From TrEMBL, chain A:
Any one Gene Ontology molecular-function term assigned to this protein's record: transmembrane transporter activity
Main location: membrane
Topology versus the membrane: Multi-pass membrane protein
Species of origin: Acidiphilium rubrum
Keyword Transport: yes
InterPro entries cross-referenced by the UniProt entry: Na/Glc_symporter_sf, Na/solute_symporter, Sodium:Solute_Symporter
GO CC terms: plasma membrane
Family to which the UniProt record says this protein belongs: Belongs to the sodium:solute symporter (SSF) (TC 2.A.21) family.
Regions crossing the membrane: 6-23, 43-63, 69-94, 121-139, 159-181, 193-218, 238-255, 276-297, 330-358, 379-398, 404-426, 433-452, 464-484
Localization of this protein: Membrane
Protein name: Solute:Na+ symporter, SSS family
Keyword Transmembrane helix: yes
Keywords in alphabetical order: Membrane, Transmembrane, Transmembrane helix, Transport
UniProtKB/TrEMBL annotation, chain B:
Name the record gives this protein: Uncharacterized protein
InterPro entries, alphabetized: DUF3311
Keywords linked to the UniProt accession: Membrane, Transmembrane, Transmembrane helix
Organism: Acidiphilium rubrum
Superkingdom in the source lineage: Bacteria
Lineage: Bacteria, Pseudomonadati, Pseudomonadota, Alphaproteobacteria, Acetobacterales
Length: 510, 75
């Protein structure tokens, strides 16, 4: 494995250096928040493609989705319809958000909501939802990186074993501070090229070694090869699968890091074109998911040399074990570096996006309204470090299961800002306070049902008139949120309309 | 690090874009991939891939083509 470690280390050092150099790329005035936190809103089609792709298809995705395939089978393939239907949503909705945000200088989603309703408490709710959902997400990127470092044979509970991870993320914090969004934009290019290279090689070499795709699928237990047929009177896993895909897609671009990726584009045209070309990543994700099936077929689960890895990382170790077992060591170094760099890009963007929200929607609104532009940028840069160090602390101080549970909650919370952001792009029917009540109902109910599932699953079997409808909790509670917001809006408007506070005009939405 | 040509030929200004009935085409990816009974079968298999898997993988580029058609129609 020595050659793998050397290649892994060289690639990582190279990329971390690139992070610092990125600050000088089409450099701007870093004392302005949109320069630091949105890269100056100047990325064209290709850079945005790498940035958004590198941002939403994360290292944890590459580890956890095939791990689910490895453990649960066909259910894991929901990632494919999820990342198919996300793009019609991107095409229809987010060019509008780009236009209104560029016109008014909004840097975050919550800022748009505040501009639309003049309601800083609604914006606060939207912003905090984003930050809280993002925290465990950064922590899970560390897990993705930890897993491949473990795969290289650097394992154990001691400080020495954690050192590579700690160093990588401290360096990440440093170049995020100095370079802002330009750093992950530049690194994403390297990361994605390495990821595409890895998956193309893996998808050709590994099936050839295992006797072809027919032989691979033949080794999957019949019960896991397809979704089980629903029992009479129930939607079974069919409704669970479909609602999981739809709900995840609706929430995807509401995550602060995804919104930041969209808003950093040069024009709304760049966003529209990316809705056409980003699905290339979805195809790659589908193929990566199949690595889980290949891991089953290869029999790595019972090989003694991988026993320690599976014991420490569980099914997350399936892909690293498969790659070590089937590929030459030098290529394992490249593949693992791709995954590790795949952790750095989203982690940096998540920290930056959270920092933008903290600065614009919390600090400036509730702590120091008289903050200057330079101070504002500095607050954001410091908060990005807090987010990254916080994620490190999260992973080392708490059991992994908390990060996974909080991530699950994050997904079903995130969709609750859909009415406030998306509906508001199309209509001014809603009232800010009504949206806030709807949001609160959605968050409360979502948490309630997730707790009924003991935070172990996000699909809950709802009973409607004698029929059982297993549904992604996010979708069911989103419907309640919409009903409440819609029913209360005319009532709130009748007492105190907030339409006069709207700083946007019809023309801003294009 | 200059952007390739494709990104520099953007029509400006931002406004005046057509929103058309072509958008209804965007419903196809939703219907085709979210109605599980369409594709939860092992057969017909292609290159060893059960139908369930290759159907959904093929749906990815097809959906991108549909978005491209709508994009072209509205440009």
């Amino acid at each position: 494995m020595d050659i793998a470690i050397v290649i892994f280390a060289v690639l990582l050092v190279l990329v971390l250096g690139l992070g610092f150099a990125a600050g000088r790329w089409r450099s701007g005035d870093m004392t302005r928040l949109d320069e630091w936190g949105l890269g100056g809103r100047q990325f064209g089609v290709i850079i945005s493609w790498f940035l958004i792709g590198g941002d939403i298809y994360t290292a944890y995705t590459f580890i956890a989705v095939p791990a689910l395939m490895f453990g649960a089978g066909a259910l894991a393939f929901f990632a494919v319809p999820y990342t198919i239907v996300a793009y019609p949503i991107l095409y229809v909705i987010f060019p509008k958000l780009w236009r209104v945000s560029a016109k008014h200088g909004f840097v975050t989603g919550p800022e748009f909501v505040r501009g639309r309703y003049g309601n800083r408490y609604l914006a606060l709710a939207v912003g905090i939802t984003g930050i809280v959902a993002t925290m465990p997400y950064i922590a899970l990127q560390l897990v993705g990186m930890q897993t491949v470092i473990g795969g290289l044979g650097i394992t154990g509970a001691g400080f020495g074993a954690h050192l590579p991870l700690i160093i990588a993320f401290l360096v990440l914090a440093a170049f995020t501070f100095t370079s802002g969004l330009r750093a992950p934009a530049m690194i994403a290019i390297v990361k994605d090229l390495l990821i595409y290279l890895t998956i193309i090689v893996a998808i050709i070499v590994i099936p050839a070694e295992l006797g072809g795709f027919g032989a691979i699928f033949a080794k999957i237990a019949p019960a896991k090869l397809l979704l089980p047929k629903p029992p009479a009177g129930s939607g079974g896993l069919y409704s669970g699968y479909a609602t999981l895909a739809l709900g995840s897609a609706m929430a995807l671009f509401l995550y602060p890091h995804a919104t930041t990726g969209v808003l950093s584009a040069r024009s709304s045209e760049v966003v529209r074109r990316n809705a056409v070309i980003l699905p290339a990543y979805s195809l790659m994700l589908g193929l990566i998911t199949l690595l889980g099936a290949m891991a089953v077929a290869s029999g790595v689960a019972t090989m003694p040399q991988f026993a320690a890895g599976f014991k420490e990382f569980g099914t997350n170790f399936a892909v690293p074990a498969l790659l070590i077992h089937t590929l030459p060591p030098w290529f394992v170094g490249i593949a693992f570096a791709a995954i590790a760099i795949g952790a750095l890009v989203p982690a940096a963007i998540m920290a930056i996006a959270s920092a933008n929200i903290f600065t614009r929607d919390i600090w400036r609104q509730f702590i120091n309204p008289r903050v200057t532009a330079g101070q504002e940028s500095m607050v954001a840069r410091l908060f990005s470090i807090v987010m990254i160090i916080g994620a490190l602390a999260f992973i080392f101080a708490l059991p992994l299961k908390y990060a996974i549970q909080l991530q699950l909650l994050g997904g079903i919370w995130m969709i609750q800002i859909f009415p406030a952001i998306v509906f508001s792009l199309f209509t001014r029917f809603y009232n800010g306070w009504a949206l806030l009540v709807g949001w609160a109902c959605g968050i409360g109910l979502a948490t309630h049902y997730a707790l009924l599932n003991h935070l172990a699953g996000s699909i809950y079997p709802f009973h409607i008139a004698g029929y059982t409808f297993p549904c992604y909790i996010a979708i069911a509670t989103f419907i309640v949120n919409v009903v409440v917001s819609t029913a209360l809006s005319p009532i709130f408007h009748a007492f105190a309309s907030d339409r006069i506070h709207d700083v946007t005009t019809e023309a801003d939405y294009g | 690090m200059s952007s390739p040509d494709w990104s520099s030929r953007e029509p400006e200004p931002e406004r005046g874009r057509r929103v058309s009935a072509w958008r209804f085409l965007l419903l196809i990816p939703f219907i085709g991939t979210l109605w599980v009974p369409f594709y939860n079968h092992a057969l017909p298999a292609v290159f060893g891939f059960p139908f369930f898997y290759w159907y959904q993988l093929v749906a990815v580029p097809l959906s991108a083509v549909i978005i491209f058609i709508v994009y072209k129609a509205e440009s």
